[in-house]
């Protein structure tokens, strides 16, 4: 089995060995790690930003090594455990990345009693929300056109990617695979099950669909808040929104009183 190393999973463009806190980011479906890793330049020396690459979702052999969300979270936690233990960390996830970050945070809490100082979630329903059900029943064998139209609805840089035959094939495969993984996410919310005690902040774009954010509030005994920023599903790529997000995240981290 291909042994994962930290360098395979983590991209940190602006290393800050003396940082008090780490912001660990999880990207969207089919998304690369670089856009969120670039956030590092907006933060002070007190925060080091890194972006997590989702471990190989399928093997390169003929046989697909189909991993589910729990396996992927397991691998990330196993490889990055020391990294999570070294200093306080906050987590940011966008869209598909939010669900991966949730699965990782849940593992860290249940297995190691580790918790982020703040969980930032973006453009996603709560993991136990009924609003997720339509995504869970999308047929993955659907024609390429349907996957493409879904990618276009989500916006981002889909247009550029889809115009190039090479990147298009890869993007569709990755997107489809991420959707398959999302469909394996299972989390039962019971009345007594409040997994987190950290603060949770939800962000979304004003022109995007409405998300079940209230569900996120049920997952912590900490403080919760939500912000809507101008734009669609990829509102966070707008420079003005990027400034707002990085400033707001900085403020939240400072308020954690490290």
From TrEMBL:
Residues 22-249 form the Thioesterase domain. It comes from Halcyon senegalensis. InterPro entries: AB_hydrolase_fold, TEII, Thioesterase. Belongs to the thioesterase family. Pfam families: Thioesterase. It comes from the Eukaryota. Its EC number is 3.1.2.14. PANTHER family: S-ACYL FATTY ACID SYNTHASE THIOESTERASE, MEDIUM CHAIN, THIOESTERASE. GO terms for molecular function: fatty acyl-[ACP] hydrolase activity. GO terms for biological process: lipid biosynthetic process; monocarboxylic acid metabolic process. Transmembrane segments: none annotated. This is oleoyl-[acyl-carrier-protein] hydrolase.
